[in-house]
Amino acid sequence: MSIYPEVVPGPPRPSVIRQIGAMALPPGCERYAVPGAGAILLTLRAGDRLEILNLEGAQAGEIVPIDMEGRCDPGLLGVSGDGTGAGLQALLASGNDSLARLQKGMARRGVDLSALRSIGVFGGASPAGDRAEFTAGQDGSVVIAAPGAPMDFERQDTLTSLTVYIYRAKVQAGQRHPLPEPLADPLQDIRVGSSTAESYLVRAGEYIQIIDVDGRQCTDFQCFDARKLDRGIVHPLDVTTTRTVQHRDYPMPGLHAKYYDHEMLPLVEVIQDTCGRHDAFALACAPKYYDDMGYPGHINCTDNFNGALAKHGVPARPGWMAANFFFNTGIDDHGVLYADEPWSRPGDYVLMRALTDIVCVSSACPDDTSAANGWNPSDIHVRSYSGEERFQRASAWRPTPESDPQMTKQTGFHESFAKHTRNFVEYNGYWLANCYADAGPIEEYWACREKAVILDLSPLRKFEVTGPDAEALLQYCMTRNIRKLAVGQVVYTAMCYPHGGMIDDGTVFRLGKDNFRWIGGCDYGGEWLREKAQELGLNVLVRSSTDQQHNVAVQGPESRDILKQIIWTPPHQPGLTEIDWFRFTVGRIGGEHGVPVVVSRTGYTGELGYEVFCHPKDAGVVFDAIWDAGKPHGLRPMGLEALDMVRIEAGLIFAGYDFCEQTDPFEAGIGFTVPLKSKEEDFIGREALIRRKTTPARKLVGLVIDSAVDVAHGDPVHLGRAQIGEVTSSMRSPLLRKNIALARVDVTCAEIGTALEVGKLDGQQKRLPAEVTGFAHYDPGKTRPRS
Questions:
Q1: Residue 1 pLDDT grade (very low, low, confident, very high; cuts 50, 70, 90)
Q2: pLDDT by residue (tens digit) across 568-608?
């Protein structure tokens, strides 16, 4: 019998690779997202086909076609629309800053806003996945809006996004993807052709946008202080200095965003980044790189830099240090620098602000000998913008791998918290306070344990689940028994895959017989519910309401005394002091005609506490009312650092640290969310969870560490030489005066009192004695939140 595989006749088959997002779109196809309460402006050519999808359902759409003369003409799309553009008019009058570019674009086209004519599509009865199609009969433009009023919490009439596809009738030869619209009116528009480099001057305060047009293309960036160059001093951007000063492998928008020269002079600040994966270790490709691989004479970025910089008096170098944007490198556990295809997708960009006058150079890397440019080098595009423009610091995130990028946002409460700190970090697509300068995490921690705190939890993902089959869907997708949930009640539950691994944990609110709200940590939870509803043919809508409901948590022993002063509820709703643990009420702040809110007796601190939900437009009023009522009670703002401390003490788990897709609820310490005996109906993951509960392998336990040395997520836990688990979360507890941790360990080592060790350095050279203790460390009976 031959040891070799059977020879298959015929030519070789191509490698099977599943592309996602824009990389998977056919030539001539473009995709755009219209956010709820938003609008976009697109250019159409005769013969282009327009397709609009209402993926979540029940979202109205409005189309305003515009001919080349600036007249609104529904006939451009072959229909006779009789709308007046009322939805778009309301959006433009709302003062939404995100529509400023749209208004400029309409003004450039000479559109008379008082003479709008529109086509209405979709509505409150539209099912998920509904679509509308049109074909352009002539050249022109089209505004597509997703209008609507702020969500009513009881009606759950949230606003959701629309997805737009344009199928171009004519595709330019060689064009793979269109160049994205400018962020503002550009000062410079520079095309960096494949395998070339271009130099350019940018003044202090101006912005530089570096765009990967077709995706999977690297670009090396270098810059010099122009004033130094005028004096003959050549000090380029220095990535080693930058890494040292910023304590990061490469700068990103936020607190650690600047690139420096070797004299520690900041040259540029990263303002926006839609890719998030770059390199600041390797040199730009150079002759020696290719010579050593057997490609002598190969064109390279270093020679291209030398040629582009010669006119600025910059001496040539054999190899240039650079910020290598979109270059996907890393250092593995063996210290080896590796490279793979870039993460960048068509249209991804980095936006920087010049901190002094700088001479810049950008390349379109020519490497076709490796995966560095996806095996297909392409163009880079550079734009510069006036310093008078205002761009918010932001990184991109994608709700699902296939989604278009969304930029980091400010919550409705941002301005209120920004009065107390400038220390904000990106969390789950939003800027949240990390800690507060006048106190710090320790003082915030004690305020939560002894008095009261207010913190921003708006990034929690909210989904309205409504319809005759809403209960059936949630009963099938959640581990808890949703049929037992009363109106006004909240339940904490897990959501699992069929293999038993957790998708997310979160809470389900029951607002009515057929009305629920799912609040979790990730967008995929809502996507999963929608997918299951479609597979089962259920009559239910699952619509995102994250941007229609922002929320603060008011936590601590005095939280009830603070909120009872300001929350008004109607007679058919329980009063603030009547809400039991895991219940909610619907009321107002400011009396019967005040700001509408939902208040739940829930939290993430292990203390008595509440969460207050409101529309973002009302967030300032809500914060001020709570803050004023809380001053006599010692209310303090709390950031993420202190929140992490109190939740670890209380044994409250965090996605990505204490559980993941390979962790079941039993292994995550929340086995109580899987009532296998009392919930007799089938649910996703039930069979796997029965098996996993019967034959458990790992368990989440508490550890007390007999050392003041910090331990961290991922540190190995040992019994003798053998590693039997790992730390998931840890902290030094001010209240318990101990170094404590949560750890997942082999079930044979999970008994309380078992002596273990936490490994540091290489796991063997340095060990910290540890002992398994009860879970949770603080108030395991949950007497305080129940009080």
A1: low
A2: 999 999 999 999 999 999 999 999 999 999 999 999 999 99
Whole-number pLDDT of residue 403 = 85
Q: What is the DSSP string of 527-575?
A: HHHHHHHHHHT-S-EEEE-GGG-EEEEEESTTHHHHHTTTEE--TTS--
261: DSSP letter: B
Please answer whether residues 242 and 362 qualify as being in contact, where contact means their C-beta atoms are separated by less than 8 angstroms. Answer: no
User: How long, in residues, is the chain?
Assistant: 787
Return the SS3 of 200. strand
Radius of gyration of the chain from its Cα atoms, rounded to whole angstroms: 28
Side chain identity at residue 330, one-letter code: G
- What is the structure's pLDDT at 701? 97
Residue 15, Cβ neighbours under 10 Å: how many?
Answer: 5
pLDDT digits (tens, 9 = 90+) for 210-222: 999 999 999 999 9
The DSSP result for 43-76, as a single string, is EE-TT-EEEEEESSSS--EEEEEEETTS-B-GGG
* CA separation for the pair 187, 201 (Å, rounded): 11
Is-contact 152 466, C-beta < 8 A? no
Name residues whose C-beta falls within 8 Å of residue 370's C-beta, 6 or more positions apart in sequence. 339
Range with the poorest average pLDDT among 94-108, 155-169, 281-295: 94-108
**% helix, strand, coil for the chain, step of 5:** 20, 30, 45
pLDDT in the model for residue 486: 97
**Does the pTM of the predicted model rise above 0.70?**
yes
